């Protein structure tokens, strides 16, 4: 359940300016967890291009994308990526919350929203990875019913280097396809 005044809603192309502002505002906050980004990423045009690409993935059922909003401000994101259907029926969740809106249960609500969205898409499982020292994100995933199932060495290129990640999974259901 979201704190009062917050909503999770589908990503829209019209979010480019609000997202650019959010990424600029949270640049330092997100830097330890993000890949190195080009300067253009933080601009309205850069966000418009990123959103268009992500919405194309949504249209092709290879992803799902939402923003966490508080009034007109974007204060977080949650996405499903790498969606695979067929016999796997899986996707990966990723999320972040604005530094000025932490400790309100927003990350947990966003992850739960993504899991509900995954279930609606017919997915069987959702996976997530965290940097080894990201205890806050690990706690969110555990509270959301995810289980730690391993560690992947040099898994993602974050902060300019290949970084190890703890891997988590949540089985959504065991219904037949």
TrEMBL record:
Q: Which family does it belong to?
A: Belongs to the acetyltransferase family. RimJ subfamily.
Return the Pfam families for the record. Answer: Acetyltransf_3
Upper lineage: Bacteria, Bacillati, Actinomycetota, Actinomycetes, Propionibacteriales
What is the protein name for this chain? GNAT family N-acetyltransferase
SUPFAM superfamilies tied to this protein: Acyl-CoA N-acyltransferases (Nat)
State the UniProt keywords alphabetically.
Answer: Acyltransferase, Transferase
Gene Ontology annotations for the cellular component aspect, listed alphabetically: cytoplasm
PANTHER family in the record: [RIBOSOMAL PROTEIN US5]-ALANINE N-ACETYLTRANSFERASE, GNAT FAMILY, PUTATIVE (AFU_ORTHOLOGUE AFUA_3G00765)-RELATED-RELATED
Origin superkingdom: Bacteria
């Amino acid at each position: 359940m979201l704190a009062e005044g917050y909503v999770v809603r589908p990503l829209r192309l019209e979010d480019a300016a609000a997202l650019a502002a959010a990424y600029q505002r949270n640049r330092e906050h997100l830097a330890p967890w993000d890949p190195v980004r080009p300067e253009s990423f933080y601009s309205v045009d850069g966000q418009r291009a990123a959103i268009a690409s992500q919405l194309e993935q949504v249209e092709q059922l290879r992803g799902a994308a939402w923003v966490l909003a508080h009034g007109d401000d974007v204060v977080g994101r949650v996405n499903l990526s790498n969606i695979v259907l067929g016999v796997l029926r899986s996707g990966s969740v990723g999320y972040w919350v604005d530094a000025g809106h932490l400790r309100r249960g927003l990350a947990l609500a966003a992850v739960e929203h993504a899991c509900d969205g995954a279930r609606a898409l017919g997915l069987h499982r959702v996976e997530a990875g965290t940097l080894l020292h990201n205890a806050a994100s690990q706690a969110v995933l555990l509270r959301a019913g995810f289980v730690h199932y391993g560690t992947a060495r040099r898994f993602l290129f974050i902060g300019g280097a290949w970084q190890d990640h703890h891997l988590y999974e949540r089985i959504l259901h065991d219904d037949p396809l």
